[in-house]
Specification:
mainly alpha; two-stranded antiparallel sheet; 66% helix; 2% strand
């Protein structure tokens, strides 16, 4: 009687496991949020309203991924994927606006980003995390030669690709 050994190449990959996709989305978005807070409080990189808006979006995506992980049914995965796509699109739009418009302006007070952040009252409830402290021009910083808003843009696009993979995977099952 011989034992069958599973073929390691038959195991599902990252894009075939909903929990891994959601966990990766959670880890990436929570890491982006944490990196922004560390950049502010440890390295003195003060955020503008558009930076704060992107911070809020990363936190929202992390929470949506937690929802998808907890609600294991297909409906939970679909909802998490759709919300991640919508939030990611908002993040892409915010990053592009910050890069092409806001960073070239001396003041970004009372812009759409300011109004959104003020309307959800995170800036007054948790000022250490969500209060804008710089103008958009002052907040234009590069890391490894790439501006922070472009890093944010790339991460939002990556999260959206993960959400599309999750939708496709959920539809196939």
């Amino acid at each position: 009687m011989s034992r069958q050994h599973p073929n390691p190449f038959d195991t599902p990959g990252l894009f075939e496991r909903p929990a891994l996709l959601l966990g990766t989305g959670l880890a990436l978005s929570a890491s982006a949020f944490a990196a922004a807070v560390i950049a502010q409080h440890v390295f003195g990189l003060m955020p503008c309203p558009w930076c704060i808006l992107q911070r809020v979006i990363f936190l929202a995506i992390a929470l949506v991924c937690v929802l998808g992980l907890l609600w294991r049914a297909a409906a939970g995965r679909v909802l998490a994927a759709v919300l991640t796509l919508l939030l990611g699109a908002g993040g892409v739009a915010a990053a592009l606006w910050q890069h092409f418009v806001a960073s070239h302006s001396n003041s970004c007070n009372l812009t759409l980003a300011d109004k959104i952040v003020m309307s959800i009252k995170l800036d007054t409830t948790f000022p250490a995390l969500f209060e804008p402290k710089a103008s958009c021009a002052d907040a234009a910083v590069t890391i490894l030669g790439i501006s922070m808003d472009i890093w944010s843009l790339m991460l939002h696009l990556l999260l959206m690709l993960g959400a599309i993979a999750l939708l496709r995977l959920t539809r196939q099952r």
